[in-house]
Amino acid sequence: MPELVLRVHRTLLERAVPPGSHITAQALADQFAVSRWTASEVLSQLAQRGVVVHAENRGYYLSARIADIPVDRDPPAGRDLNAIYFKIAEDRLSGKLEESVTESFLKQRYDLTAADLSSLLNRIAAEGWIEPRAGYGWTFSQILRTPQTLEQSYRFRLLIEPAALLEPGFHLRGETIRKLRIAHEDIVAGAADTLPADVLYERGVAFHESLAEASGNPFFLDALRRINRLRRLLIYRSMVDRRRFYEQSAEHLLILELLEDGNIRGASEALRAHLEEVIRKVPPKVQDALDRPLKPA
């Protein structure tokens, strides 16, 4: 994340964004192809540097001092919440965390302040693998834990995703194609080796969910979102070998090219072939990775 903070800081300077401009997490998430939570953390770190100013209940605004702050200036030392996020994910996946937990337990186990814990719980809840328990505490959601269940999820996706492209109301906006292309060209250009696992995951999810949403049939998107929530932690485990992200992103770019050319049936067939290849390769990699600890790679 420090590299992303520097990129955003540098971009704000290069584009001569006027001081006082409202800077939103969603805008940064769209521009830099990261999750909204990651963008929020970037804004928090930029506030620590003095690049932006936080106004209660109003958000972040570009500081009048931005031109006086060196891009490479180190922010105040703080906890690496992304590392703690992956530790929680690892403990949940390996069964070290019970299904129901309290905030006091989590604060003590991971040595967190109330503010840091709130940030992490909000992120995990937004991703769909924890939810508030009625009355008190939190409950972890069901997740996929074995290569077999992951393969079953891909076989279900093989049924619905290519079909989504063939829906009568399918339409993928040009602006959506542009954003997806930028994100995947970045991966092919080398970001597959440097981006954190959660950001790589979000880019893949954004691609597939954007196509499902473009079908115009909400049932496709609802089904895919549920599967993506279930498989997130297990997919993190399979990210040890990152070579496949070059291949998969290249296949995503081909599908986007076909859609841009109006060849929807060809894109549907390419998406089917893409998922079939994933089914062939991913479960063995997950099996190999199950004995390795999950790290914020």
TrEMBL record:
<keyword id="KW-0805">Transcription regulation</keyword>
<dbReference type="GO" id="GO:0003677">
    <property type="term" value="F:DNA binding"/>
</dbReference>
<dbReference type="InterPro" id="IPR036388">
    <property type="entry name" value="WH-like_DNA-bd_sf"/>
</dbReference>
<feature type="domain" description="HTH gntR-type">
    <location>
        <begin position="1"/>
        <end position="65"/>
    </location>
</feature>
<protein>
    <submittedName>
        <fullName>DNA-binding transcriptional regulator, GntR family</fullName>
    </submittedName>
</protein>
<dbReference type="InterPro" id="IPR000524">
    <property type="entry name" value="Tscrpt_reg_HTH_GntR"/>
</dbReference>
<dbReference type="Pfam" id="PF00392">
    <property type="entry name" value="GntR"/>
</dbReference>
<dbReference type="GO" id="GO:0003700">
    <property type="term" value="F:DNA-binding transcription factor activity"/>
</dbReference>
<keyword id="KW-0804">Transcription</keyword>
<dbReference type="Pfam" id="PF07729">
    <property type="entry name" value="FCD"/>
</dbReference>
<dbReference type="InterPro" id="IPR011711">
    <property type="entry name" value="GntR_C"/>
</dbReference>
<dbReference type="InterPro" id="IPR008920">
    <property type="entry name" value="TF_FadR/GntR_C"/>
</dbReference>
<keyword id="KW-0238">DNA-binding</keyword>
<dbReference type="InterPro" id="IPR036390">
    <property type="entry name" value="WH_DNA-bd_sf"/>
</dbReference>
